[in-house]
Amino acid sequence: METNIISVKYEDNYMPKTFSGKAYSYYTAITVEVGDLVIAPTANGDKIARVSEINIPEYKVEMIKPYLKIITTKIDKTKYLQNNQVMEEAA
Fold it and tell me: Is-above-0.85 flag for pTM?
C-alpha cells in the first residue's frame, strides 16, 4: 500500500555527504525513491537528508502523526555529491 510517509536520515554535520544515524519520518508532497536527496525541515532549520524508506504504513507513526512535517523539495543528487551544489531537481 502506498502512503506519502517516508523516513530520512540527515547529513552528518561532521562528515559532509554522509547520511547516518536515526531515521526521521515526514510526509512528502513529491514523489521520491529510496536514496533520493531532499531538503527536510527541522526545528533548527532545513537540512539535507537522504530518503531511507518510503510508503511507511500509518500505524507505524500513529503517535507522532500530528507532528510530522512535509518535505516539498528534492535536490539533484549528482550535482550535490560531486560539486556541493544544492539545486532543485527538475520535475
Answer: yes
